[in-house]
Amino acid sequence: MPWSTPAEMAYGFSTPRRVVTGHDPDGRSVVVSDGPAPRSQAVGASTFHEIWSSDETPAPLAPREAREPTERPLRVPPGPRGTNIRIIDSEPGMRTPMHRTETLDYGIVIAGRYKLLLDDGSETDLGPGDVVVQRGTGHAWLVAGDEPGRMAFVLVGGRFTDELRELLPAELELFDQVIDGE
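User: That's the sequence. What structure does it adopt?
Assistant: Structure tokens below.
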């Protein structure tokens, strides 16, 4: 499979494969698409591979999608009732800014070594197979060592409870933006 970005060529990660199921006219299960992630976008020292997203939960399940769900601006986070799954490849030493989203995120390390940095100053070392359940906390990611990293992220729109809102700064700044890769 050809690589789609310079980072993939340099580090040997191939574009993730996406297999999507649906239903035939008789309601039987079928594979409706099977191929590389339909959208890969370089963002700084990382490449975001968009796999799927939904605008609401519960997600409507039709025989086939009306449109390709990755044909939209790359947004972090999904909408308040939405979901998103993406795989992110990052160069060694890449560090994100400290940020917080009003989401429940599952971050799964696929390759490389990472440090999860929290706003209390703590650092947690992570490796392949480790899963972080991110619950609306301030955090940053650092690809540790000399190898690139690959993580899968599932983001689910969330809502801070009143109890948590009382603990957070009154002028809370949430990361909520379209990432254009420029």
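The two ends are 26 Å apart (CA to CA).
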